[in-house]
Predict the 3D structure of the following.
Amino acid sequence: MTQSDSGQTLLAINSTEWLNLCARGSIRVSKRRPVKVANPASHREMEKVFCSAPFTKIGSSIDLFVLVIEDTWPKRAQKHRSYPGEIVQLNLSDVIQHQPVSLEHLEYYRNIGSKCGIQLSSPSFEQAWLYWVTNETITASCDAADLLQRTFDIPLSSKTKRADRYKWNDIARLVLRPNEPVKTKPAHAETLLSNIRKIADAVAATRDSEQFYLACVIEWVDIRLKKDPLKRKAIKDTLLSALSKAKQFPLQAPSEETSAALKLLAETFPKAFTEEVSPLSIAHVVQLLTESRTKELKTETVTRIFQSLDKTSSTASFTTFVLATSLGIELTTKLASSMNQVNLVDMNWDSLN
């Protein structure tokens, strides 16, 4: 072995490459793919290793291996006749360790490797891989948001600076991992995204009627300000009346009375809202994220909500961004494609890969 405590050479490959390496004894690779890193490697160094791997579905640990290879392998590597300046042959004898990226798949591949006389080592790069996946997913989320916003002629969030202390990457992280706080004193956006499920569960009985709008906002005020609007005597009767009448209407654009009740809540509890997190946007975000996560979201619902937004508002940027992040780049691409059809097409939730 030529590895040392000061450095090691790593190569990330997919499962097809690994199976070929085991079966054939060699594979062709670009000589630039192996990456010399410290021992142990930093997250930043491991990002270079994973970035050099063949493109696979983000988060698919079953299709990724990390090989620790001899530092001196390039001196022995045979050049490929078609591209001798770049493509070389990596031999099985150059590999010091074979590691699946995840412990979950160790036994599965260990059994396959044993048939070829290959001994697999326990994964030591899984945490670095999870860090890589998170960053890649956030980047893809921002790309998805740009795509969705272009579809609806909404200014790109990637070109927009947020008014609070958060970056758009923070918002993406909150959508993907709502239980992991970003700030010790969360602003409105973080509080909302961290409590989507709590609000959705609390208002589940109202989800098919116009009551949903009011129920979401009442629950939100209680969460954000620790104040129950229905205990405020001055507005209790008005809210109860609006809730009762709203039950008669399907969940479409809010009626005049529901809109008036939402305005009353905003005026009574101004600290619960911002330009971005408005009373109506709370219900929209809860509905969109909940239905996207349960694969119940309809193209018609997205169209109705997004067409009701002021396209130049921060609410429009926020709402489209969080939906695109929740859907991911593949489903957002499908959604955008369905929007471009003459007749709206329902979402196909089957992933391409």
